[in-house]
Amino acid sequence: MRRDGPFRLARASHEAALGGADEMAVSDSVRRRNIFVVGLDDFHLAQLQTLPDAENYAFRALFTRQQLKSAEGFPVRELLEDGRRQLLEFAGHVDAVVGYWDFPVSTTLPILRQAVGLPGPALEAVLKCEHKYWSRLEQARAAPEHVANFCAVDPFAEDPLSQVTIGFPFWLKPVKGVLSHLGFRIEDAEDFRHAITRTRAGVRRFGDPFNLILEFAELPGEVAAVDGNHCIAESHISAGRQCTLEGYAYEGRVQIYGAVDSQREGAAGSSFTSYEYPSTLPDPVQQRMMEITSRVMHQIDYEGGPFNIEFYWEEDTDHIWLLEINARISKSHAPLFHMVDGCYHHQVMIDLGLGRDPKMPHGDGPFRFAAKFMVRRYDDARVNRVPRRSEIDAIEASIPGVVIDIAVREGELLSQLPYQDSYSYEVAVIFVGGQDRADAKRKYEHVMDRLPLEFARADEPMRPAAS
Question: How far apart are CA 334 and CA 357, in angstroms?
Fold first, then answer.
């Protein structure tokens, strides 16, 4: 029996799965909980349907992923106005409003929940995670020795470089960005000028809709002056081992249930190449990261929600640096938890959304190790050939614990892909479960040897694919 069935289910339409009015009750005594998922998509619906007690949940789309993520802009105003209307006019009982996406989902959830009186983190607590400058201010108050030097930068100022109070090299990032979009390593003034040009052209895509959300929050003066179209400059941290803790806050308790290692490569080490679970960092290092996490999450008054928090550990100096906090589960890590622990960590999101203490298993999955490999290219190219469905099925069937997700279409230019980091293009994702890291890496290499994913130079016309 295959263990990766839930991934394959994700390719079916979710409309039938959402059902109709007959979902309101499983029996006369047990009512299905109506769980509204902001940005619901097929892939994650299939994961949600495998959760314990899923038969007692009715998952309902409050906007789909396509509606929120595929347009030229982010429909924040529509999400807040129409989303609240849908929740308030729903004929049944709204039991939870949840989401696993970054912007604009994570930052609108507190506003949507408040409209129907549901529990969850306050908007200001979420913004203290998601607004990079505000987050750094709070982190520095709780754990100053673990936070790099930073300052705010207005990219539209006449002389933005004059606002930078830290020395080269440093990182320049938007106050609100996704997937390292418009994140640059700055070595000198020329790098800075190039980054500012790119930033001015693209920062409003996230900044303008983010500013709509800031209007709902009570902002201290030092934050109100740094809106979504600003950047943050941060001192460069020497190379180290990156680790993300997945956790939650509930009734004043901060709990960590998993640690995932991140591997990087490419220019400036800016591009993720794999996420690996469980972490191989020494236990004492992980314990120190957990203690720092507890201090910071209490500082920002984060309560009743999931989060993930990223750290660097400098092995040579044994120093820990805090990178950033996200007020959500990592959807990228969900299949890894399923493979190793036997449950997608959407379970944590659902439990908290229903106002209860999460129950997450540990070590109950079919594999001892799992990884998500990001297949990347570092130069622009045209996609000449992608695998057919039958070819993907054949590879997955022959290598246990493998799931393949192609992120490009034939004929596309990589430079036209949305939400890429500043140095590479993600063209596919390979999830792999194994008995250890070496086993998973072996399986990944077997997949890549067989995967018919072909590219041509960007200036070459598309060639007819071989039949």
Answer: 19
Other C-beta atoms within 10 Å of 198: how many? 14
Q: How many CB atoms lie within 10 A of CB 265?
A: 15
Per-residue pLDDT reduced to its tens digit, 109-120? 999 999 999 999
What pTM value is reported for the model?
0.89
Taking the C-alpha atoms of residue 366 and residue 338, their distance in angstroms, rounded to an integer, is: 9
Give burial (CB, 10 Å; 0-12/13-18/19+) of 1. Answer: exposed
pLDDT digits (tens, 9 = 90+) for 257-290: 999 999 987 544 456 789 999 999 999 999 999 9
Annotation: CATH topology of 241-457: D-amino Acid Aminotransferase; Chain A, domain 1 (3.30.470)
Max distance between CA atoms of the chain, in angstroms, equals 69
Give the residue among 160, 250, 176, 246 at the shortest CA–CA distance from 217.
176
Pairing of strands 170-174, 241-250: unpaired
Residue range 322-336: mean pLDDT, rounded: 96
Report whether pLDDT(239) > 80.
no
**Given 3.30.1490, 3.30.9, 3.40.50, 3.40.1620, which CATH number is that of 149-235?**
3.30.1490
What number of other Cβ atoms are within 10 A of residue 157's Cβ? 12
